[in-house]
Amino acid sequence: MAVPKRRLSSSKRDMRRANHDKVSAPNVVPCQNCSAPTVSHRVCPACGFYKGRAVLKADPSEKT
Q1: What contacts 43, CB < 8 A, 6 or more positions away?
Q2: Mean pLDDT within 30-41
Q3: So what's the pLDDT on residue 6?
Q4: Mean of the per-residue pLDDT values for the chain?
Q5: Whole-number CA gyration radius for the chain
Q6: Which of 2, 19, 23, 32 lies 20 to 30 Å from 46, alpha-carbon distance?
Q7: Rounded to 5, what percent of the chain is helix, strand, coil?
Q8: 48/10 Cα distance (integer angstroms)
Q9: Cα torsion for 18, 39, 42, 20, to the nearest 10°?
Q10: DSSP string, 10-26
Q11: How far apart are CA 29 and CA 12, in angstroms?
């Protein structure tokens, strides 16, 4: 089994660990039907449309 020849400095160790848990923000685009911000490739929660078709019945009491 390979073993490091020299001890890794805390700076190098921390630089490596700093990149592990990065999470990017979801891609938000306007809905083609109602222009509400939605996550791409998902049904619009405001109007229930996806790719120009009504997929879900939108609940009028739930406005985002």
Answers
A1: 49, 50, 55, 56
A2: 92
A3: 93
A4: 87
A5: 23
A6: 23
A7: 10, 15, 70
A8: 51
A9: 0
A10: HHHHHHHHTTTT--PPP
A11: 38
The residue with tokens 């078709």 is 53
Secondary structure of residue 12 in the 3-state scheme: helix
CA–CA dist 14, 37 (Å, integer) = 37
Q: Name the percent of the chain lying above pLDDT 90.
A: 47
Cβ-based neighbour number of residue 49 at 10 Å: 19
Report the amino acid identity of residue 30. Answer: P
Lookup result for tokens 């660990």: 17
The C-alpha atoms of residue 38 and residue 26 are separated, in whole angstroms, by 10
Tokens of 26: 């979801």
